[in-house]
Amino acid sequence: MNETFLSDLRDQVKAFTEADPYFLDVEIINERLKDIEGKIEEKLGPLGTGICIVLVTPGVGGVMANVTGANFRDCLLVARILEDVTLNETGKAALDVAIRLTALWSQARPDTFSSSLVPTEQVITLGNDPKYLSYDVAFTTESGTKIDIPRLSAPVVDAGSLASVSLTCATPGAALFYTADGTAPIPRNPSAALFQAPFAALSGQTLRARAWLAGYLPSPELRITL
């Protein structure tokens, strides 16, 4: 499973952009950088180049209908070009950079998607940054990307002796919750017990159990009369 596909997508596009020599003197910054404001000030201040690109964290447009699994479509990628017109000595105005970026991204095809990026209807728009001249370049993914969430296998019971009933799961680290009163074996059920050691059961009792682990779908339920 890979929930980081959006940040992976952004990182791929960043690397693709940085490979173009045109951007050697135009810093490309990820929006989720810890000190993003400080980094922007550094690049647009007296000791910087006066221009930079901020890659906005991608957004998801929606889930693909009628497709099995978590398939995300229309992932939005935005590059925000910021320029201090009084300090920019690169010879590359913000609008020039926006146009170059649009031409380059039209050829980008990230590994996690089956087709190239496509420009939005308003691919280049004037930004509203209160301090710097800014332009936004916006693209979306034409096709989707899928996250497969694995499901845990059902617990296995070893009830050779009612005095010592054990539960196991094929996936290491899974938490096994069980009940013997007919209620659901889920973590938030006060009647559910977390299996930690063999336990005693009564003949004729119905044991219900499920496995739980972060990053997985819960297992099917084991239900057995002892």
Task: Please describe the topology of this protein.
Blueprint: H1 5-18, E1 27-30, H2 36-44, E2 51-59, E3 62-63, E4 70-73, E5 76-83, H3 94-105, E6 117-126, E7 133-141, E8 145-147, E9 156-161, E10 164-168, E11 175-179, E12 193-194, E13 206-212, E14 222-225
Q: How would you sum up this structure, described in words?
A:
The chain is of the alpha+beta class and 226 residues long. 15% of the residues lie in helices and 35% in strands. The longest helix has 14 residues, at 5-18. The two termini are 36 Å apart. The mean pLDDT is 84.
Topology pattern, helix = H, strand = E: HEHEEEEHEEEEEEEEE
Helix content: 10-25%
Task: Give the C-alpha Rg.
Answer: 27 Å
Mean pLDDT: 84
Spatial ordering of strands, largest sheet: 1-2-5-7-6
* Count of DSSP H/I helices: 3
Spans of at least 5 consecutive residues whose pLDDT stays below 50 are none
Number of strands: 14
How far apart are the first and last residues' alpha carbons, in Å? 36 Å
What fraction strand?
Answer: 25-35%
Broad structural category: alpha+beta
Overall morphology: elongated
The major beta sheet can be summarized as: 5 strands, mixed
